[in-house]
Design goal:
outer membrane lipoprotein receptor (LolB), chain A; alpha+beta; single chain; globular; 37% strand; 316 residues; 19% helix
Length: 316
């Protein structure tokens, strides 16, 4: 039974069937509609038969439906597949927007231990090359006990980086083995692995959802290292801002436990690249954290290949 309205019971709809002439169409229009309708109606004649070729009208219809089929196939894919693709695209776009031919800055490191004691260190940072296939040199400038200590990192797009450390007090360099990458780098809360570049091709991704960081909307993406990527971390979760694709936070897990949290703040546009001017790494097991402030930051500065070698590390 139909529900009534304020004006009384609703009358059932009656659909009246009328001929073309009853609708007011003249003979000329009727003939035109018949001609156009038969020309545009897709026919299967010749498409399935041997040796046949589709006519132009059939080609247009086939092209349209092939495109639609492609869209329907994408829509019908499992959600996990689509979110994985989207997650990788987001990370790739974030990497693309942050890429530069070279980079230089002076860093102030403040190490806060579990009791609140603060220790200051300073280093210079230089980077040359494309993302994932670059070379970086970190060199401490203060305090006196670590001055001159340097680290050369050679990043690779398809595997873990190569690293060498130079200690001027003993005039010795040593290669950092993969099994040692989880150790702290000179009293900071960064490990040797944390100083590598994270290349998009070295991880698999899953879009977990949306979550704000510091009141800014972000994508929350989980990444797991591929077999070619040696890592101390079982997985990482990265938050990428939706407004400028800059990283806002990274949490690194070992098995089911988060052990380090990296927060990015003071995000500014530097030469067209949205960059965090302050980065803080927290060691959740130790209860300590290290804050890195980027000073005198420049992108695309002239640097030489020969300054990013083991020989150059020893000379300076």
């Amino acid at each position: 039974m139909n529900k009534g309205s304020a004006c009384g019971p609703r009358e059932p709809r009656v659909f009246e069937r009328r001929s073309a002439r009853e609708w007011g169409w003249g003979p000329t229009r009727i003939r035109k509609e018949r001609r156009e309708g038969s020309a545009s109606r897709p026919s299967t004649l010749g498409v399935g038969r041997r040796g046949g070729a589709p006519r132009e009208s059939q080609k247009r219809w086939l092209t349209t439906n092939v495109g639609l089929a492609t869209i329907l196939v994408y829509v019908s894919l499992p959600v996990g597949v689509r979110t994985a693709d989207n997650a990788r695209e987001i990370v790739a776009e974030s990497q693309r927007r942050s890429d530069a031919k070279s980079q230089r800055y002076e860093g102030l490191l403040q190490v806060f231990d579990a009791k609140g004691k603060i220790t200051d260190k300073r280093w210079t940072f230089e980077r040359l090359g494309s993302h994932g296939d670059s070379r970086t040199v970190l060199r401490f400038t203060a305090p006196a006990e670590v001055k001159g200590v340097a680290l050369l990192v050679v990043n690779h797009p398809d595997r873990s980086s190569d690293q060498w450390m130079w200690t001027p007090a003993i005039e010795r360099d040593r290669r950092i083995a993969l099994q040692d990458r989880s150790t702290r780098f000179f009293g900071t809360d960064f490990t040797f692995e944390d100083l590598e570049e994270r290349d998009v091709n070295q991880y698999d991704y899953t879009l977990v959802g949306d979550e704000a960081v510091d009141a800014v909307a972000c994508w929350k993406i989980q990444s797991t290292p591929k077999a070619t990527k040696s890592s101390q971390y079982t997985r990482s979760t990265v938050w990428i801002r939706k407004d400028n694709y800059a990283a806002a936070r990274i949490e690194n897990d070992i098995k089911d436990r988060t052990v380090r949290r990296l927060n990015y703040s003071r995000i500014e546009n530097v030469q067209g690249i949205w960059t965090a001017r302050q980065i803080e790494m927290a060691d959740l097991d130790r209860g300590s954290r290290t804050r890195l402030t980027l000073e005198k930051l420049q992108y695309n500065v002239p640097l030489k290949d020969e300054d990013f070698t083991l020989q150059a590390l020893r000379r300076q």
